Amino acid sequence: MKDLTGKWHQLRADAKHCADLGMSATDPRQRELFKHLGDELAIAALELERVVKSQKPHSDLDEQCDVLSKAIAGK
User: Fold this and answer.
1) Three-state DSSP class for residue 26
2) For the whole model, what pTM was predicted?
3) Of 69 and 7, which is predicted with more confidence?
């Protein structure tokens, strides 16, 4: 799950970088291209964030069950 969280943060950073490049581009086609790419990356980041957050409670529960199982097995 941590790998996905890192990827979502990287996507968000890449989206911001593309937006910055688009704002500094002097060519209108490049400006539009970087804006579009930044928008697509931002959408991908949001979708991945949603997946990570929807899975997180389940993984926390799984970790708690593993700890409990090990504790019971140790008795």
Assistant:
1) coil
2) 0.68
3) 7
